[in-house]
Structures are given as structure tokens and as C-alpha cells.
Amino acid sequence: MSFRNRLSKRRSIILTWIISYFSILFLPILVSLAVNQESGQTLRGEINRANATLLAQLRDNMDHELQNVRRLNMELSLHTMVQSLMYSNKYANNSYVYDVYETSEELRLFKASYPFVDNFYIYWAAQNTVILPGTNRDSKFAFEDLHGGSPSMSYEEWLSIMQRKNYHGFLPMQIKSQGGSLKPAVAFITSFPAGPNEQSVGSCVILIDAAKFLDMTDKIRLFSGGQVYVLNDNNTILVSNSPDTDIQLPQIERLHISKEVEFAYKAQDGQQYEVMHAESSISGLSYVSLIPSTLFWEKDRYVRNLTIVSIVISLTGGSILTYFLLLKNYGPLHRLLRSVAAQTGVSYSRNDNEFQYIEHVFMETIDEKDKIGLHLKQQNQLFRSNFLNRLLKGLLDAPLPVEHIVQAYGIDFQSSRFAVLVFYLNDIDKFLSRLDQKTANEKMKLLRFIITNVVEELAGKTHLGYVCEADDLMVCLINFSGQTEHDSGDANDLRQIATEAREFLLKKFHIDATISISSSHPTLNDIPIAYKEALDVMEYKLVMGSSPILSHEDIRSSLRTERQGTDYFYPIQLEQQLMNCLKAGDYDQAKITMDSIIEHNFSEVTGHVHLRKYLLFNLMSTLIKTVDDIGALGTFSFTRDAAALDRLHSSKTIEELQSLLTEALQEICSHTSAKRKLASMETRYKTHMLLIQDVIDYVNVNYRDRNLNNSLIGQLFDLKPSYIARLFKEQTGQSLIDFISKTRVERSKELLLQKELTVGEISEVSGFNDVHVFIRTFKKIEGITPGAFKEMNLV
Questions:
Q1: Nearest 5°: phi and psi at 469?
Q2: Can you give the pTM of this predicted structure?
Q3: How far apart are alpha carbons 622 and 619 in whole angstroms?
Q4: Cβ pair 7, 350 in contact under 8 A
Q5: Which of 51, 108, 535, 544 is the most exposed place for a label (fewest CB within 10 A)?
Q6: Do 524 and 418 contact (CB within 8 A), yes or no?
Q7: CB-based contacts of 731, cutoff 8 Å, min separation 6
């Protein structure tokens, strides 16, 4: 399709390119127009900020150096020798020459420590003497040596400054250079304290070469072309990079462009200036920068003209370049489209966008490549796992040597020594519960993937490990790297790998695994032997329930004994003794008997593990026979509950079987013991009831006996009076004495119905010792006296 036809179609990449090119072209043009409107203000602001930053930097740098100057001033002023000269009265007789000499020598030590300071001296007013580092002079000679010939300051003016009281500040001065010429300097002068009515003590003067200040101001001058002034607190110019020293701080409203630097405009001599002013809170100095406004507007006009010219050039050149670039760039793309369509067979519609078509073809190709790669990887993993499985079982029958086959599966044996680790997964429920969104097959794939990567990585630290699945177990073939030369070293490495793998899987993924370790073997052909050893160890562990990590070396003697045979100790006498203990409900004796049987068979790590397991099943059979003998086969959970029976049948370790035996033993003994106690209680109850009935019968017959009481009845039945009284109350709900009294009252009521007997006679016949006791007892039980009862019934 021609370029013009492509251009006419809206979805073509050509139209997109044209829009893109012109968007890129017009965007900077529009931005340039907008920037041009604000360029003056922006440029002024940026330069002001830059100069403000430089001015603040100048202030900070100078403050740093002036801090050192202040520190030197403090050290000089507070020096003990200086203080002694200034304030001691011992020099009244002019015996100070040697002390002044010592002081000047002491000052020499400070000169090298402060390179920023050009010179310093101390004026001693009492002796009109100037003390310099290493020397001292009278004031006149010192002034001529240091400041002589200065047109800005005479000796009298200098002396007046030196004799000031309580002065502290910076002043401009001129000092002589080594060549004798004068050069500007800044003097930091501090008067020694003196009382209000006292004369001046003296001053400490520190001189700084103004050139050092100018070196710092050059950055601002080079950047902006402006003038920089450093003023003291009286607005006296200390340092300036301009010959014009006749300036004043602008007395106009200041615009704050930062927290530290002030900004203002000032008209002076018909010229507009940009004024920046910064004050130091440390030294008290002020820093002023004056920049001619013409510098700003000149650059602004230059930028505006440059912008207009660049816009015209951009429009013209951009349009021409756009046309030619479109022609050049679309040619290769058009050829690529035809080649892709021919090679892939994917039809290309002329209404499609070119890049979208290429992207579509490319993504389809990538997807197909990924599918093929994934399929090949899965097949290779499957083939490798199958190869390792057959290698472990000794089933390889390939015509090629094993050394050549392993290379095809990415296996590289570094030595001829091998060992095998077998992983049995005890508990993976917690791991699987965290994968709710996956199917059961996906969960198991992820489980195998994790174990494979973890074990191979841990084994790869010192040796090589290759993991596969065999017989529902995860198996790792270890190829030793050759760094360990002895079996003991191999065994330690294998145990370390197993320990680290088990701890990592349990801690990070909640996978509880049992690991068995084979011995190390010297040849490739011994791999099936190593695998068989690991399986034997795993079988031993699962039955015996020992440590979660067990090696073939740990149980080698036990496995040797299994092949030789062992004793089985469970005689019929012990079985009968165990059954008798169970029927009697004697749990302690039954437990001792069962433990003795188990201990006799398990006391040594010998014997066939399955034979021991059969012993525990035989013990369980004894328990079931005992339950059947007592007629309670359907009473216990381990005989009636299907889940309990399944648990017994599926028990894999001896510990599990022994635990089930103990539970069943305790359940049987609890049942038989409770049953015996219940039978004993029933027999006892019947005996007590017969005894109480005999007591009642005796009382009914012998109630007339005045000596009838608890003691008499206890002697009669050969029991303690308190016991028979308590037993009678428990069985009848009333005391024995009350029962005797009620029996006598009942018999007396029958006699009271007869007219011929008096109350006293009836009392005597009924067994009461006294008529008053009879009346009181009768009234307590019947609520009325015997006489009233007799009259009421006779009427």
C-alpha cells in the first residue's frame, strides 16, 4: 500500500507518527511561549535565589572563620599571663620586662593554630605597650610598624580606639605587608573589662587580611556581576569588592524571600539595583549584595529573541524532517509486515494498526514458545524422576552407560560414593489447610516441589542431592563431593542434611517428616542396596516409633538380629495373671504385669520389629477375652466403637499400640472395680437392713424393759452403742432412743383406753422409769398429756 493510502487510513501508524512528531514539535514551542512570558520574573527570581544562597553561604563561611577569631580572642583575653599583666599591681616599680617577654613568647604559640588570622596583638594601657607574638613595643613604635602611613587612621585615632572601655566589634584598618605596602584588613577589637570609675585596661586586637574575605566574595561577583559589601554593626564597610564605598542600606520596604536573606530594590544614581541583605546572628556583621537590574533585563531580552528564532527554526525544520523521517521509517516497517505475514501465516488486514499486528503475532509466538518450554521441562522432570526411581530399584537396562544417561537429565555425579535419604510425611494437614484455593492434586504437586527444592538446596551445600518420588515416599539420592574420605564424615554430613531439612520444613511449611538414612556405598551399582537399607530403617522406625531421624548405622545390630531370629516371651501363666488382675479391677497390678511383659520383650534393641508388634496385638486379644469373660463385650469403646477399632488396626508404631493398650487396660479396670464396689455396697445394704429389722423387732417385744437403751441393744448385737445408733438413724431417719420412746407411747395409748388402769400404772407397764417422764414424753410426741388423751377417748 502506498504512503498516501496509508496516510488516509486513521488506524495506520503513519497518522500516529505524524501526530506524535507534531505533538513533540509543538509542545516545546507552546512551552517556550509560556516560558517567555514568565522568563523575566523567573530568571530574576532564580538569580536572586542563587545570589541569596551564595550570600548566605558567604555569611556562614565567614561566621565559621570569625568563630575561630572569637575563640582566639577569648583564649588571649583569659590567658593567665595576660590577665596577670593587665590586672596585677606588682609592676608599680616597672619590673615587668621579663613577664612581658614571657607573655609575648606565649602568644607566639597561638599564631600557627589560626591560619585565617593575619596577626594579633594586645595593647597594655598601663604601660602604653603593645605585646605581639614573640616581641613587644611601645604603642607609637608598634603603630608605625603595623599601621604606619595609613591615610584612613592616625596614631591618635588608633590610640583612642585602643583606650576605649567596654568596646567589642569589628573595624576596618590597614596593615603593612611584608614588603612594607599597606593592605586593607579587618580588625576585631575587644576591650579588657574595666570598672566605671577606672581607666582603660587595654584591648585585644586580631587582624584579618581583607583579601581572605574577598576570596569568599568572588563567587558572588563571578556569578552575578554584582557588588558585595561586608558591614559592621554601625554599617561601616569592612570589606568590599567594589571601589565605591559610599553606599547606604536601602531605606525601603524589604521583601523577604527567605528566612535569613532580605531582598529589595534600590535606585541609585539613576540606576536600578537588586539589593540583597543578610545579617549574622553570630558575628553581628551584615552582608549586602548589589546587582544592576540591567543584567537581568538584558538576559531576558536575549532569551525572548532566542525563543522567537528557535520557534521559527523548529517549525520549518521540524516539518521537513517529519516528512522525510516518515518516508524513511515506514519502509522497513512495511517490509517487516510482509515478512511476518508470510512466515507466520497470520493474515494482515490493511485496516489494522501495524504495531498492534506485530504485537499480536509476537505474543502468540511467545505463548507458543512458553508452552513448548513448559511441556519439555515437565517431561524432563518426569523422565528424570522415573530414571532415578529405576536407578534406586536397580531396574536400569539401558544399552548406554549410566554416566552418559544422567547427563541428559542434568545430573552430574562428582564421585562414586552414594547414599539415600527417605522421607516419610507424618503430618501435612497444617500445610494443606493453608492452600484452600488449590485442588488436591495441585496441593500435592506444590508439596513435592517444596520438598525437592529444600532438600536439594541443603544437600548442595556440601554434596549433590537429587530428589524423586518412589513408592509414595520422597527419596533423595546423595552423591558425595569427595571432600569427606571416611564413612564417619559421610554419616555426619547425611545426618546434618536430614536435620536441617526436617527443621526447615517443619518451621517454614508445617511439614512433619520422618527421615531414614542409609549407609554410604562406594559404587554406582550399590545404589539399590542403599535404597533398600533406607527402606528397612524407615520400616523399623515406623514400627518401633523411635527418633524422627534414624540411620542404618543406628539399627544395624537390630537388623542383624532380625535375620537370626529372637525369643517371644508371653507364657500362659502371665496371661492368666493379667486376666485375673483385670477381673479384680486392680489397675496398678495389671499395669505392672503388662509392663513386665513388654519390658522383657523390649529390653534390648534386638528382635524382629513385626514380632514385637504381634506381641502387642496378642496383649490386646487378652484384654478382649477378659471383657468377654465378664460379659461386658459391648460396654467398652475399644470393642464397640468402629473408630476405635480402625485406630487399633491402623496403628503403625509400637508406641501407638502400647498407648491403646494402656487406655483399654485402664477402662477395663475402672469398669470391673466400679462393678465390684457396687456389688459390695448392695450386700452391705442388705446386711444393715436385716440388722435394723432385728433391732426393731427386739424393741417391739422388750419395750417394757426400763433399761432398754443404745448400750443394752449394742451389747445384745455385739456392736458399739454409737455405731448401732448411727446405723439406725441412717436406715430409718430417726434415732434409736426416739424410736423406743415412740414404741412405748404407742403401747401406752392402747392401755389408756382401758378404764381400770391409772396413768402411773400405765407408765410403769410401758417401761418408763417415772410418771413425770412418761407425761413429758407423751405430750412431746402426741401434743397432749396422757390424762387428757384418756378423758378425750373415754368421752
A1: -105, 130
A2: 0.39
A3: 5
A4: no
A5: 108
A6: yes
A7: 688, 689, 692
* Contact yes or no for 201/162 (Cβ under 8 A): no
How large is the average pLDDT for residues 341-362? 73
d(CA 22, CA 322): 8
Cβ within 8 Å of residue 428, ≥6 positions away: 447, 510, 511, 512
d(CA 523, CA 533) in angstroms, rounded, equals: 15
User: What is the DSSP track for 267-313?
Assistant: EETTEEEEEEEEE-TTT--EEEEEEEHHHHHHHHHHHHHHHHHHHHH
Q: Give which of 768, 769, 699, 703 is closest to 728, Cα–Cα.
A: 699
Cα of first residue to Cα of last residue in the chain, in angstroms, is 148
Q: Which amino acid is at 541?
A: K
Phi/psi class of residue 312: alpha, beta or left (left: φ > 0; alpha: ψ in -120 to 50)? Answer: alpha
Residue 562: pLDDT over 60: no
Overall average pLDDT of the 23-38 stretch? 76
SS3 392: helix
- Beta pairing partners, 291: 274
Task: Give DSSP secondary structure letters for 658-712.
Answer: HHHHHHHHHHHHHHHHHHHHHHHHHHHHHHHHHHHHHHHHHHHHHTT-TT-SHHH
Domains defined for the chain, CATH in brackets: 1-206+302-343 (no CATH), 213-296 (3.30.450), 375-542 (3.30.70.270), 563-678 (no CATH), 703-794 (1.10.10.60)
In whole angstroms, what is the distance from residue 781 CA to residue 749 CA?
12
Which residue in this structure is represented by grid cell 400404772? 761
C-alpha separations of 649 from 194, 609, 652, 662, 668 in Å: 110, 17, 8, 16, 20
- SS3 readout for 449-471: HHHHHHHHHHHCCCCEEEEEEEC
pLDDT tens track for 187-202: 889 988 887 777 888 9
**Contacting residues for 515 by C-beta, under 8 A, at least 6 apart:** 421, 422, 423, 424, 498, 501, 502, 548, 549, 550
Burial class (CB in 10 A: 0-12, 13-18, 19+), 215: exposed
